[in-house]
Specification:
By secondary structure, the chain is α/β, with parallel strands linked by helices. It contains four helices and ten strands, in the order βαβαβαββαβββββ. The protein has a five-stranded mixed β-sheet with strand order 3-2-1-9-10, with helices on one face. It has a five-stranded mixed β-sheet with strand order 4-5-6-8-7, covered by helices on one side. Helix 1 links the parallel strand 1 and strand 2.
Amino acid sequence: MRIAIVSDTHLPRGARQLPEECVRRIAAADLLLHAGDFSTAEVLRELEAIGPPVMGVHGNVDSAELRRLLPAERVVEADGARIAMLHDAGPRAGRLSRMQTRFGERAQALVFGHSHLPLHEQAEDGFQIFNPGSPTERRRAPRHTMGMARVEGGRLQFELVDL
């Protein structure tokens, strides 16, 4: 199973749109995870129209309608892998340990956003945290990014993709 992962799209804003490579990767995926800050429900509907099912959580800038449609956190089952989702995983210091304590009993990984800074860390026991960065608003990150994950037999592997 191939999973496309985005966060912090902050659309629409001026002429900004998802990069073509991002759209291509989403269309080729079996599932899309969005870790919040879509902005509007229309953006969710546009992402759903690309093809794969969309699983998301709402972020801090999302509309009231999106907050009604999407939870603040969730756990997604994908081909035997359990992936927790949350928009803001808090301060960098101690994040891996904190998120492992919070989600480790329910999931083998956490996908989050908010900082716009791509990140992939893994604990000694295999629990992972992954932030795909942003495909549209890089802020302090050196480039626009998204994530991809592959699940085979319940085993989960993340990849950061520069756009």
